[in-house]
Specification:
eight-stranded antiparallel beta sheet; alpha+beta; 370 residues; 17 strands; nine-stranded antiparallel beta sheet; 31% strand
């Protein structure tokens, strides 16, 4: 046989053997699938993330863990718990949590859903920031049951990249539209989780206001929609004298100004447990003042105890801020702005009319003498 004929025959044999091999492998794979072979890879089950409104209302604890914004090398955890007075911050501090912000988080968490599978394994957890040191880890507890345990990592055009605890795989969660994941609801600064609202009542429902401080006591009573006032001065020993029923210089409009400041009173900042001892709120009548506001429909007056001027240095600090607490709460130490705190520490002149006098120097006021 000639050389070129031998080469052609050899090549033909190689092709035949190759085709036979492919057919054999295809036959084996087909047999394995039809026989239900255990070697076939199981299909990934896509978990359901959405849950009912009833489940959302039953959630009693939320844990939010992520790298500390000020130090990415350590983790920062905020724990929110449903307590006797509603939602509270349990860690890293103790305080009242904003109910509306917690409810917004739960509403968002209950509606999110997986839109596609990115990967069926765990090899890309680190690349997508889904590991413990990098992810936002959200755990929602329903009593002793972990209702949801999720890790949120990077965001890309496919959605919010997510990992579900106990399930292998990398998923993309929808992050647009009314049911999309809203990351800002989960990553608030600790201060932003705190409830800033202190008082909330209708101005027209106030029936009595009492102020007691080192200057004396002031009492305002609403009768037939008109405010009347009495006061008591302190003597040389600091004791309250008899009530002065002849306080003719009282200006009713000043009481209405006070109510406009206190009907939706909010905190400018918050103190810590270590600040309480020097805040003066526990002896507010001497260090600041106490305001009690009786409101229709409430069995007890709303009482704010204003203490000493705060020396706390924060981005929200204002000169003249004072410490304050509210009776009946969980003991949160607030910081009030000067223009609200000053009502508690003022003397009777704060509630008297002022008059402009022609020829007086700029800014001068004249008050009537009692």
């Amino acid at each position: 046989m000639k050389t070129h004929q031998k080469l052609a025959a050899t090549a033909a044999l190689v092709v035949v053997l190759g085709v036979a091999g492919l057919c054999l492998r295809h036959s084996r794979a087909t047999n394995a699938r039809t026989a239900g072979s255990s070697s076939a890879a199981p299909e990934l089950t896509i978990p359901t993330l959405a849950f009912s409104k009833a489940d959302a209302q039953a959630i009693s604890r939320i844990e939010l863990t992520r790298p500390d914004p000020d130090d990415q090398q350590r983790l920062h955890t905020i724990i929110l718990e449903k307590g006797r007075f509603g939602w509270e911050i349990a860690s890293p501090i103790k305080g009242e949590a904003s109910a509306s912000k917690v409810e917004a988080l739960l509403e968002n968490l209950s509606g999110i859903s997986i839109r596609l599978v990115i990967d069926e394994g765990s090899a890309f957890y680190d690349e997508y920031n889904l590991t413990e040191p990098k992810a936002l880890h959200v755990v929602a507890w329903k009593g002793q049951e972990r209702l949801r345990d999720l890790y949120f990592g990077k965001t890309d055009p496919r959605g919010q990249i997510t990992r579900v605890s106990g399930v292998r795989g990398v998923f993309a969660v929808t992050n647009w539209g009314p049911d999309g994941y809203s990351g800002f609801l989960f990553t608030r600064h600790l201060r932003s989780w705190r409830e800033t609202s202190i008082l909330n009542f209708a101005e027209d429902d106030a029936t009595q206001i009492d102020i007691v401080n080192k200057n004396g006591s002031l009492s305002f009573t609403k009768t037939n929609n008109t405010w009347v006032a009495t006061r008591a001065r302190r003597d040389a020993q600091g004791k309250l004298a008899n009530v002065d029923h002849e306080w003719r210089a009282f200006d009713e409009s000043k009481v209405k100004d006070l109510l406009r400041n206190y009907r939706s009173l909010s905190a400018d900042d918050f103190g810590e447990d270590a600040d309480r001892a020097t805040s003066g709120v526990d002896n507010a009548e001497e260090s600041g003042g106490v305001i009690r506001i009786a409101v229709e429909g409430r069995s007890a007056p709303l009482t704010v105890r204003v203490g000493r001027i705060s020396t706390r240095e924060t981005p929200w600090a204002i000169k003249g801020n004072r410490w304050a607490v509210v009776d009946g709460g969980i003991g949160t130490l607030y910081v009030l702005s000067p223009w609200t705190a000053d009502w508690a520490v003022s003397d009777a002149s704060r509630f008297e009319p002022t008059y402009e006098v022609r020829g007086a120097s700029a800014g001068a006021t004249v008050r009537p003498r009692n």
